[in-house]
Write a structure and sequence with these properties.
By secondary structure, the protein is α/β, with parallel strands linked by helices. The protein is built from 14 helices and 21 strands. Strand 1, helix 1 and strand 2 form a beta-alpha-beta unit. Bound molecules: cytidine-5'-triphosphate (CTP). Cytidine-5'-triphosphate binds next to helix 12 and strand 16.
Length: 400
Amino acid sequence: MLKGKHILVGISGSIAAYKSAFLVRLLIKAGAEVQVVMTESACEFITPLTLSTLSKKPVYTSFYKTDNGEWNNHVDLALWADYMLIAPASANTMAKMAGGICDNLLMAVYLSAKCPVLFAPAMDLDMYRHPATRDNIDRLLSFGNKQIAPGNGELASGLWGEGRMAEPEEIIAFLEQEIAQHASLAGRKILITAGPTYESIDPVRFIGNHSSGRMGYLLAEECAARGAEVQLVSGPTHLSVNHPRIHLSRVQSAGEMYERAVALFEQTDIAIMSAAVADYTPVHAEKEKIKKKEPTLVLELQKTKDIAAELGRIKKASQILVGFALETEHELANAQAKLESKNADLVVLNSLKDEGAGFGGDTNKITILSKHEAPVTFPLKSKKEVAKDIIDQLSNLIRS
Ligand code: CTP
C-alpha cells in the first residue's frame, strides 16, 4: 500500500525522535519515498545524518542550504507529499500548527501542504493533559488533521501515563488504513444536497426551517476525504467549504435546488439528499412588502417538487440514491415508506424523539434502512462520526 507513496516525515524536538529512525526505515522497506524535514531542536535528539542515510535523501532542517545560500522551497516539498506525517509532534510544534506560526521550515511546509496530515504527539502526561494542548489538538482535528494517539507507558520523565509516542509499527498501520480509506471512493462523483431552503413570501420574508446544513457539509468532507469528487448543492447556511474536490453551488429555494440537482444528476454516481427541503412554497411571492392591514393573513401554498423522488424516478441501475427521513412518530414505518416511494437505496432516519438528534446541535442519532438488509441503529455520536458511519454503510453497499 505504501509502495511509491511520497511521505514527508516531519520530526520535532522530543526524545521520541529516536523512534523516527525506525519509522523512516519501515517506510522505506515498505517501498515509500521518504523526505525528512526536521526542526532545529529535533537535531538535538537525533542527527540529520542518521535520517538522511535511512531515507536515502538529504534532510531539510532550515529555509536555506547553508553552503550556497540557496533556499529550500517549502511549497515544492509540500506539493511533493502524498501524506505528511509529523512524528514526533511535540507540544510546541502542535501549538504552532494550531496557531499558524511559521518560524521554521517544518511549519512552512505544514502550512503549504494540501495533502492529508497525520501527527503523533509525544510529551509528558501533564503536558498532554493540559487544556492548552487539548485545545490545540481539537483545533488540528477541526482542520482535518489526524491524530495518531499516544500510548500509555513509562515516559522520559520517569512518570507513567499517556503521552508516549505511538510505536513506529502502529504509525505505519494507521497510515496504511488512512491510505486505504482515502482511496475507497476515488473517482466517484457524488451529489449532496444540504441545508434548508427559503421560500419567498415577499422581498423581505420567507418560509424556512432550522436546518444548519452541518450534516450535509460533513458528508461532503467525508466523501472528499475518501477520494470522491463532490457536488454540494446547498441552501442558505453560514458554512463554507475548503476542499479542492468539493464544488459548492448555493441555492435559495426548493425550486432552485431541484433545478441544480437534476442538472447534475446525469454526471453522478451517488446522490445523498440531506437537505431539509420545504414541502410547500407560496403560490405567489409578492413583489412588494406585504403591509400589515388585516387582522389575519392567509398564505396560499403549493407543493414543491420532490427532488429525491425525481432522482429516484430517473436513476439508472448503476446510480445510488440515499435519502434522509426526519420523523416524529412511526419512525421506522415512515422511513421504510420513503425508501420505497423515493426508490432510494438507503434511507438515513433521524427521530426527533431521540435526544441530541436532528437539527442544530453537534450530535445525531441515526438508523440506516436499506432495501435488502435489516435496519442498523447507531448510538448518539458527533455529526462528524455520523457522517463516517453513513459513508461506511454506503461503501459496504457499493462493495456488495
Ligand atoms: N426531499 C427532497 N425534496 C423535497 C422534499 C424532500 O429531496 N421537496 C428529500 C429530503 O432531502 C430527504 C427526503 O426527501 O432526503 C425525505 O424528506 P422528509 O422531509 O423527511 O420527507 P418528505 O418526503 O418531505 O415527507 P414528509 O414531510 O411528509 O415526511
